[in-house]
Design brief:
Length: about 280
């Protein structure tokens, strides 16, 4: 997404959010998918968004009160119902943004993190992307006995990498360090035991875009800032919370350590990455 201010208002242009390439030469971005491949679970049959569906997969069907054959978009009988949705679904949808990227957001699910963090150190920004914490979704077929609620690390949210992880690490670091790209973490799961609703996340993004976001220190941790979001303010005087946060960062350290052995060490990161996490701890 990019935005430009005209007459006090922001014009927002949207690039596909799921698969794209960022140029390390000029900061431009190119989408790899000409349409949206979305889950249908969030769109009931009467949703106006469904008029943009081109094809549907893994969905059930039923007969309505008028005798018409209609799809069952919710995951009732089948899991992970999907649809190819036209790019016309969103306004100002483009396949390329020539404007240089100015912000990168790591979307995570981590109960120790508030709804938003701003990372002000290029090394830390890149390594936290490499230790991107999330949870498995209904889009995945899990092996029997797998805990669907357990945190997993998916570096840069890219499970399809065929090259050494350090290549992504250095390229993202260069964006933060050489192109002065801002870096944020948005927690889209729970903070402690309280779900962070999408309206809160959208509001945070809007505040960042229109430059009204007010960031403050995240406890005593250097290089991390946060916003006060009502109902989701971290309490650093609570020893249980501090313990949870430490454990969260320690889990990331363990993940980095595991990369030294996994796949013969192909994906291990440079010492500076581990040092940045040690500094937090």
């Amino acid at each position: 997404m990019t935005h430009a201010k005209h007459d006090g208002k922001y014009d927002v242009t949207i690039l596909h959010d799921d698969a794209y390439i960022i140029s390390t030469v000029d900061g431009s971005s190119v989408a790899l998918e000409p349409s949206y491949f979305d889950k249908t679970q969030d769109y009931p049959l009467v949703s106006p968004d469904n008029k943009y569906l081109v094809t549907m997969q893994n969905c059930g069907a039923t007969i309505d009160s008028e005798g018409k054959l209609v799809p069952v978009t919710e995951d009732i009988r089948n899991g992970n119902g999907r649809a190819i949705k036209s790019k016309l679904w969103s306004d100002n949808r483009v396949d390329k943004l020539q404007e240089p990227i100015n912000a990168i957001v790591w979307l995570m699910k981590d109960q120790s993190l508030p709804p938003v963090l701003k990372i002000e150190n290029p090394v830390l920004a890149s390594v936290l992307g490499a230790c991107l914490a999330t949870k498995r979704t209904t889009a995945e077929k899990l092996l029997k006995g797998t805990d669907a609620n357990a945190l997993v690390f998916e570096p840069y949210a890219n499970p399809f990498r065929t090259y050494a992880l350090e290549e992504d690490y250095y390229k993202f670091k260069a964006l933060f360090e050489e192109r002065n790209v801002d870096c944020y973490i948005l927690n889209t799961g729970h903070f402690l035991d309280k779900k962070i609703p999408k309206e809160v996340t959208i509001g945070i993004i809007e505040n960042i875009v229109d430059e009204t976001a007010e960031f403050k220190d995240f406890g005593h941790l250097k290089d991390l800032k946060t916003m006060d979001v009502e109902g989701f303010v971290p309490n650093f005087s609570n020893r249980d919370y501090v313990k949870m946060l430490k454990e969260s960062m320690a889990n990331r350290m363990e993940f980095l350590e595991s990369l030294k052995e996994l796949k013969g060490g192909r994906d291990q990161l440079p010492e500076e990455a581990e040092a940045a996490l040690k500094k937090l701890l």
